[in-house]
Amino acid sequence: MAGHPLDPLFHPRSVALVGMPRDVEARGSGFFHALLDQGYPDHHPLYLVNPNATVIAERPCYSTLLDCPGPVDHVISLVPARTASALVEQCVAKGVRTLHLYTAGFAESGDAALAALERTLVARANAGGVRVIGPNCMGLYVPAEQLAFYEELPRESGPVFGISQSGGNAGDIIRGLAERGLRFSKLVSFGNGRDVAAAELFEYAAHDEESRLVVAYLEGVPDGRALFRALRACARSKPTIVLKGGVSQAGARAVRSHTASLAGATEVFDALCRQAGAIRVDTMDELQDLAVLLSTQARRIAGPRALLVGRGGGFSVLSTDEIARHGVDLPELPAEAQGVLREHIPIAGNSIRNPLDISSLTGEGGSAMRTVLRVAATTPGYDFMFATPDSAPARHSGASRHSAFGTPPPDDEAAREQERRALNELGELQAEHARPVVVVRRNRGDELVPDAELLRTALDAGLAVIPSVPRAARVVGTLLRWRAARAGLAAVF
Amino acid sequence: MAGHPLDPLFHPRSVALVGMPRDVEARGSGFFHALLDQGYPDHHPLYLVNPNATVIAERPCYSTLLDCPGPVDHVISLVPARTASALVEQCVAKGVRTLHLYTAGFAESGDAALAALERTLVARANAGGVRVIGPNCMGLYVPAEQLAFYEELPRESGPVFGISQSGGNAGDIIRGLAERGLRFSKLVSFGNGRDVAAAELFEYAAHDEESRLVVAYLEGVPDGRALFRALRACARSKPTIVLKGGVSQAGARAVRSHTASLAGATEVFDALCRQAGAIRVDTMDELQDLAVLLSTQARRIAGPRALLVGRGGGFSVLSTDEIARHGVDLPELPAEAQGVLREHIPIAGNSIRNPLDISSLTGEGGSAMRTVLRVAATTPGYDFMFATPDSAPARHSGASRHSAFGTPPPDDEAAREQERRALNELGELQAEHARPVVVVRRNRGDELVPDAELLRTALDAGLAVIPSVPRAARVVGTLLRWRAARAGLAAVF
Question: Closest approach of chain B CAs to the CA of A44, in angstroms?
Answer without folding.
Answer: 20
